[in-house]
Write a structure and sequence with these properties.
The protein is an all-alpha fold. The chain is built from six helices and no strands. The longest helix has 16 residues. It is globular, with a radius of gyration of 16 Å.
C-alpha cells in the first residue's frame, strides 16, 4: 500500500510541476459563477499544497507548505464551495472520451463486523 501511495505522490509532484495544473484549476473555477478571484487564488494554493506534502491535511501542515496563514486557511474553509460542481467540471475537462469509469479506494476505512 505504501508503494502505491508513494508512486501516487510522485505522480502528483510531476503533475504539479507542469503549468497546466494551475491553469486547469483556474479555468474550471472561472466557469463556476459563485467563486470570486480571491477564493480562486486560495483554492489554487490549497490544491497545490495538498499535492505536495505528506501527512495529515491540518491547518498547520497547510501553512507549512503554502503561503497562507493558519487563521486565513480557517476562515476560507468556513466559506461555501461547491466541490461537486468543481469535480464534475474537472472530470469533463480531463476525460474527454465518451466512456467513463470511477473507483474509490476504501482500504483505509474500518470494516464493520
Amino acid at each position: 500500500m505504501k508503494k502505491i501511495i508513494s508512486s501516487t505522490r510522485q505522480f502528483f509532484k510531476v503533475f504539479l510541476e507542469n503549468v497546466l495544473f494551475v491553469q486547469t484549476l483556474y479555468s474550471i473555477m472561472q466557469k463556476m459563477t459563485n467563486v470570486n478571484k480571491p477564493q480562486q487564488k486560495f483554492l489554487a494554493q490549497l490544491f497545490t499544497a495538498l499535492a505536495t506534502f505528506v501527512g495529515k491535511a491540518t491547518y498547520r501542515n497547510l501553512n507549512r507548505y503554502s503561503n497562507l496563514n493558519e487563521k486565513a486557511i480557517s476562515r476560507w474553509f468556513r466559506r461555501v464551495f461547491d466541490f461537486l460542481q468543481f469535480n464534475n467540471l474537472l472530470l469533463h475537462q480531463l476525460i474527454t472520451s465518451k466512456d467513463k469509469i470511477s473507483a474509490i479506494d476504501a482500504s483505509y476505512m474500518k470494516k464493520i463486523r
